[in-house]
Amino acid sequence: MAASDWERQASSAILRRVSGFRAVADNQDDQAVQYPDITMTTWQKRDWQQFYELARRPWRRHRPPRPVYPSGLNRVAPAHGFSLSELDDAGVDLDLAERLGLPVDAGRVGVYGPNVSVLRSFIRSSRPL
Questions:
Q1: Residue 88 resides in a domain
Q2: Which helix (H) or strand (E) covers residue 26, if one does?
Q3: What confidence score (pLDDT) does residue 19 get?
Q4: Shared-domain flag, residues 89 and 109
Q5: How far apart are CA 26 and CA 127, in angstroms?
Q6: What global pTM score does this model have?
Q7: End of a domain among 31, 56, 81?
Q8: How confident is residue 34, by pLDDT bands cut at 50, 70 and 90?
């Protein structure tokens, strides 16, 4: 019994949907037909499960703290980055600061105590156990 054209088209469409594999099918003459790799365009149930599982996870790394500098009486203003002396007092070298995503302002001079304490606590919390 020969398969109808519709059945052959439907089976070839199903085989082409397989993502990441080379689909091989037999036609009515028993000759192997190869279809090109086709990437997945719609998400399957497992893809959605992985997506929501990742979305539920907490952040692995904390966002880096933002430096401030004193401006006037009981006021602070945001700074462009931590000064080199603040990084040095906290025990952070430039390579580590770059790896952690800490902003560095080489032009800033001076040390502001709260910046150093925030840096120390950030380094302590970002270290692996």
A1: yes
A2: strand 24-26
A3: 43
A4: yes
A5: 57
A6: 0.52
A7: 56
A8: low
80 found inside a domain: yes
The torsion of the CA quartet 125, 88, 99, 112, rounded to 10 degrees, works out to 70
Check whether 50 has a pLDDT greater than 90.
no
Q: What is the DSSP string of 35-73?
A: ---B---S--HHHHHHHHHHHHSPPSSPPPPPPEEE-ST
Place of tokens 């910046």: 115
Give the residue numbers spanning the domain of 80. Answer: 68-126
Beta bridge partners of 78: 68
Residues 35, 11 share a domain: yes
Give, for 90, the enclosing helix (H) or strand (E): helix 84-90
Q: Is 23 part of any domain?
A: yes
pLDDT score for 74: 87
